Model the fold of this input.
Amino acid sequence: MDKITDVQSEALAAVEAAVNLDELQQVRIKYLGKKGAIQALMSEMKSLPREEKPAFGQKVNVCKQTVTEAVEAAAAKLEAKALEEQLINDRLDITLPGVRRETGTIHPLHMIQQEIEDLFVGMGYKIAEGPEVEEDYYNFELANIPKDHPAREMQDTFYIDPNTLLRTHTTAMQMRELEKAKGKTPIKLICPGKVYRRDDDDATHSHQFTQCEGLVVGEHITLADLKGTLEFMANRMFGEGRQIRFRPSYFPFTEPSVEVDVSCPFCNGKGCNVCKGSGWIEILGAGMVHPHVLEMNGFDSEKCTGFAFGVGLERVAMLKYGIDDIRNFYTNDQRFLKTFDRFD
Ligand code: PHE
Done:
């Protein structure tokens, strides 16, 4: 009987001494396990005289009960303590400054392109995109620039083979769309994209640049429609109050052809160093689609007419954001690109 008392107090002391759940588990096994000390007491009962068995058995049961309860109570306490410790260890100090993730910014040329796309999609134009490696046929032939035509020299071309080239203007895409329409009107689309010309790169020239050309073909389309459309675009791109003017020009695929100036947004037409004192800035080329181009693409030039224009996006971006070197668009200098995050 004394042995039971000893085992019990020894077990309770061990429970008390366990500082974590692992230690407590060891204590549980040592005293309450199948091969534990209390089970051993049970086995001893067999060797006792019969009359002592009930009292002994009862005492062992009480001992087992007492130790079990003590272990459970200790387990609850230690679990609470472990949780508390975990909460303290995992604590997040939200007052610490965070680690800033580097994020990119939209490239200024894309900004301009998106702006122009929004503007024209809002007027019901669709966007047509196509290959940068283009056939001579679409880039030149269908645009009324046959082989040996002197106008081919206006655009120094990167040829891949005699019939394949890097497109020199997105007019190539307009020709693809005209051909696809098979004489059906109306056509209203813009073609944004990269174009290539052999050029020595400097502050204002680049062998690669970005164009957005527009094309409208239908009945009763006039030069006045072209003027209204470009005036709307100039006002949206350079601020309200812009005026535009047409100067006669030459493109093989338009007749008449015009060069388009916008009244200088920096001095409001009074004359400043950006417009070199003239009050006007040249922004694009345009004209009425040449009847021959319409005919070659299967349109009846007696019935329908059209206008087309082409604008260089680098030029627009340079004017709009005051960028003085076209190479900035292509050298990917983060210090330059980062300055555009404020326009997002
Ligand atoms: N394709 C011409 C160029 O690249 C621009 C243009 C487009 C002119 C449409 C008139 C009409 O210079």
Observations:
- The chain has a mean pLDDT of 92.
